[in-house]
Amino acid sequence: METGPLARQLESVERNMAFLRQEHLALLRGLHLEILSLQRRCAELTCELNLKPAGRTQAEVEEEEQLLEQRRRQVEARLREQQCSLAELRRELSQKGALAGALRAALKDRERRFLEELKRRSHKIASLNGELQRQTDAAARLSFQLYAARQSLFHQQEAQERASRGSGRAERPPPSPPLPPTPPPVPPMPATRPKRRSHRPPAVVRAERARECVPRERVTGPEDPAPMPDPALFLYPRRHRPRQRHAHRPRPPGEGPEEGGRPRSRLNSTPTAGVAAEAE
């Protein structure tokens, strides 16, 4: 920031002023001591002049007094110059101090405004985070509701389809010879299915499974089956999903391979709906 060089400059100026003040005080002390020594010397010379017999003329004494007076005046002039320079330095130091005070006040004001702006932005960010969390929870809740509604609609349609198939089977004439209850015969299709899977590509198998699990009117209808949106995009914690258990049940004699594979595909209706759309 700009206040760093100014603060260092002010510190250097203060150190220089303190050094000059000490130098001036030492110089003034020396001048005072010199004046005192000159005064003592003058007093001694006066005493010597008074005590000694008149060996010197009055002109010599006056000349010496003039020299001493001239030296005294020079020392006093130097003392006045030093005092003037000291007063000027004090005035400059006061100006620099006022400037430093103004800069400190401006810096404190700028820091206060910066802290207020930072606090305001932090409050705004906190409010926006809260709003985002609420919207995320609402979106996740709506996505779960939409998925539940789609699942219920799919189960209703499947129940209607089963009811229609059951009514169609009830209308068929029963077999004439009553047979004893025997276990359902195992069709040869499951035994040969692994061999077909080995020869058929996995994409075709997934497409057929998806087509089996989706109702026929939804596959052939104008609306494409839409999968459930991923709720992990709207939720922060990671939810534990139970493992899907594939229920294998024996096929009745009247059902084909398409109906027998329906319970397994019904559990995976959500991930295979997109595959059915790709197969179409």
From TrEMBL:
| Pro residues composition bias: residue spans | 173-191
Per its UniProt entry, which superkingdom is the organism in? Eukaryota
Q: Which residues form a coiled coil?
A: 54-135
Q: List, as start-end ranges, the regions of compositional bias called Basic residues.
A: 237-251
Query: Compositional bias (Basic and acidic residues) at which positions?
Result: 158-172, 206-221
Query: Where are the stretches annotated Disordered?
Result: 156-280
Q: Which InterPro entries match?
A: CCDC74A/CCDC74B/CCDC92, CCDC92/74_N
* Residue ranges occupied by any CCDC92/74 N-terminal domain in the UniProt entry: 8-60
* Name of the protein in its database record: CCDC92/74 N-terminal domain-containing protein
Q: Which UniProt keywords apply?
A: Coiled coil
- Which PANTHER family has this protein been placed in? COILED-COIL DOMAIN CONTAINING 92B, COILED-COIL DOMAIN-CONTAINING 74A
